[in-house]
Amino acid sequence: MMQLYLNLIIKSIGAVSSVQCPVSTMQNHARASFCTQANALLRKNLTFQKRNVKTNVRLVLFPVILCLLLFWIQSIIDTQIDKPDFKCGCGCGRSSESDCPDSEKVCGVQYSNPIQAASCAIPNPPEWPPLMQLPATPNRTTNSSPFTLLFTAHNLSFARNVSANMFGTMTHFSTDLFSSLAMHLLGSESTPGTNNFVELAFSLGLPIYYLQTKCTGSSPVSFSSQAGVYNEIRCAQALNLWRNSSSEIDSELYKGYERGNKEGHGNGIVSAFDFLNSNENRYNVSIWYNSSYQRDSGTRNVLLRIPRSINLISNSYLQCLLGPGAKMLFEFVKEMPKSETRFDIDVASLLGSLFFTWVVLQLFPVVLTSLVYEKQQKLRIMMKMHGLGDGPYWMISYGYFLAISVIYMLCFVIFGSFLGLKIFTTNEYSIQFVFYFIYINLQIVLAFLVASIFSNVKTATVTAYIGVFGTGLLGGFLFQYFVQNTSFPRGWIIVMELYPGFALYRGLYELAQFSFEGSSSGIGGMKWQDLSDNTNGMKEVLIIMFAEWKLMLFAAFYIDQVLSGRKSPLFFLRGCQKKPLFQQLDTQMQVSKVLSQMEKPDVIQEKEKVEQLLLEPTINHAIVCDDLKKVYPGRDGNSDKFAVRGLFLSVPQGECFGMLGPNGAGKTSFINMMIGRTKPTSGRAFVQGLDIRTCMDGIYTTMGVCPQHDLLWESLTGREHLLFYGRLKNLKGSVLTQAVEESLKSLNLFHGGVADKQVGKYSGGMKRRLSVAISLIGDPRVVYMDEPSSGLDPASRKSLWNVVQHAKQNRAIILTTHSMEEAEALCDRLGIFVNGSLQCVGNAKQLKARYGGTYVFTMTTSSYYEKDVENMAQKLTPNAKKIYHLSGTQKFELPKEDVRLADVFQAVDAAKRKFTVSAWGLVDTTLEDVFIKVAREAQELDALS
């Protein structure tokens, strides 16, 4: 399925971006096929992966360590649950376990142990007298510290009549003491348990109080409860106190609660009642109760004792209407019968939603970092410039990350299953496979999409890990609450699941819930038929993730194409696009026209040559530029910036064209247009007959680039770099091996193990030489070298020059440099670039003859004869110009057309006979002089305009 899907992607990519481009007549090498490009990238990725074994081990160890941690916690809990407290066995009723003889042991439910009672089978639950929850007060004795019940109502007299019947004055208990307890209002200061299988007040022998209006002369009564424990029943005074409103009761309860918390005991208020609009024909009562017991301990259930308060006020209402004899007896409370409950706390199911969310999301920073690293180091651009198409890149990169993710998840599930974690073993593996497979695909395309936002690896890594842990915490402490809250709208749950992290958390939550419930009930975990259950969110999660996977994949590809700078946002509607308009360039255009009118004859000649080449049926030059312009829009009120102004240039095969110019002249902008990194504002250029505006994919296959800054993988070796780029240029087998060996040898990267050393350990000069070797591998027809010799020592520079001299014999090379010596040694023709315009074109001798035109005459004498030297220069030519004078040393520019070399030598001989000449010299104009002169004139002209 995955291979079919990738094929569809590749076909769609080709359909969207296809442009009819003519086949170059000068292309001698076949373009690398799709499979060849994919094979090259896959080999590079596998080699890169092999270099990062330690990182991969740490990545795989993260889920392994987490599973081991959960397994260790599970073992500790299982050991604790295996103790007698959690089992139904035989134990002592009253004596300690150490000195309890077998004759006193009781088998079955041990009422002194509520945890054990919860695990036992209880077919006939015991009946317990109902109790009211009493607040705990210190040093309680009979007739002291009365309990208080508050009441209020709209009808004061009616409320007083009802409340007067709450407490009786009887103190008589029948011989059947346990049955007669229902006639009294009983209460306990003990906190209730989680159920009524065991009433702690009776099973632990705690004091029981019966509430009376007066306790004079009352004495405690002792009896033995069902738990075999002796209990003592004591009288406790209770008062009914009137309050004017419910707000007064609220205020008093709150103050008493605060005081009770600070003092460590209750405030004496048992409960409160609001009779509201009750009367003889209407019974409507609100009851306050203390819920802090339940809040303070999650194992308590104070609601178990609320029924006694309801019975109390209901009886009082009946007696008010029918007399004291009317009574609705509340004899006992009991639980429903139950079977044996086996304590089986599955830690992986309880914590899996949070922990496993972190495990799966751990892959996201890995994929994102890898993509942003290629973007930050401009490696993706470098690969594309050497022929790697979008189809192979997306297929191999996607498949590469998918393979890593699948292996990661398989290790995670297999190891968790091996340890017996029930979230894996109880749920069907096919459901888990589909769930994890869809999500890791969604996660990969999400990484491709998010990578377009970041340009720095550190920023992307920090942001990604914050997202990983933030998603887990928000899912565990916020999203899960909404899922469990049945009153929360289901529609908003689905909206929240549109965020992939919450969709992952919801799926893991459902798996954990099914494994937890299945392990406790013995039914098993999630099955496919369970997805039809409306309460199971797995089905909607799978649908959401699958749909987002598809949508994000195309969104990621679209954004990648647009942000690459090669295509407009409407590239899929190519036929409907309008040509770009630049209407706010008035001043710059006028300047451009003025400059074009003042162009030098050699520049005009180059323009005419280009126009002639464009009229021919086929362009037989390697590079032809026709009025190429690049304008960067102005920002913050600044005017637009002309980087390249109407460039006309032709470079035939076998020529090395050198571009000279000061920093910011536009050389790099020109090269960026030619290599496809930026699109020209206007004009056009042809490489091997292919238009750079529409056919860059075809140009890439015959192009080599040595960028200004080295774009290399730090963990790959020099040999591995050349093997990768050689495969992209369709070199195979022994031809590839030989080409790599020759490249390494020619640039002094072969001996001493340098070729097999990781590039991160290379010096700056070694990296530069490797970049040059990459640009020439595969015999490209056109090569761009942006300052290739920067940072090289003299010996390496000389070796590099020999390589370039040899390479230019069968290819066109455009070279930028700041070294005049390098330009003269390598370049067949030179062009000086200033302020985006080509100022002059020609070989070094032509430029020096055309723009130099002077000799530099130097003579050193004593200060006394300086005037004689100046007179001698004026006799040679009236146009002599002094350009230097210091301590007897003077320099003069002598126009070549005004002097002959023989006249200069004769004048010097004559001068030597008249005065002492310490030194003298006559030199021709250097290329550096020409460069400085042309650049200065162009800048002065630009300043004036």
Written overview of the protein:
The protein has 945 residues and is an alpha/beta fold. The protein has 4 domains: 2-10 and 38-67 and 344-563, no CATH class; 132-322, no CATH class; 598-842, P-loop containing nucleotide triphosphate hydrolases (Rossmann fold, 3-Layer(aba) Sandwich); 854-924, Alpha-Beta Plaits (2-Layer Sandwich), CATH 3.30.70. The strands form 5 sheets. Strands 3, 4, 5, 6, 7, 8, 9 and 10 form an 8-stranded mixed beta sheet that branches. A 6-stranded mixed beta sheet has the order 16-17-18-13-19-20, with helices on both faces. A hairpin with an 8-residue loop joins strand 11 (623-632) and strand 12. The longest helix is centred in the N-terminal third of the chain and has 29 residues, at 53-81. It is elongated. It starts with a helix and ends with a helix. The model is unreliable at 1-20, 22-28, 295-299 and 575-597 (pLDDT under 50). It is found in: Membrane. It comes from Psophocarpus tetragonolobus (Winged bean). The chain crosses the membrane at residues 59-77, 347-373, 393-421, 433-455, 462-483. Residues 623-860 form the ABC transporter domain. This is ABC transporter domain-containing protein.
Give a brief description.
Helix content is 48%, strand content 14%.
Strand percent estimate: 5-15%
- By DSSP (H or I, 4+ residues per run), the number of helices equals 33
Shape verdict: elongated
Task: Note poorly predicted spans.
Answer: 1-20, 22-28, 295-299, 575-597
DSSP helix fraction = 40-55%
Distance between the termini: 65 Å
Mean pLDDT over the residues: 80
User: How many domains is the backbone divided into?
Assistant: 4
Radius of gyration: 46 Å
- The beta-strand count equals 24
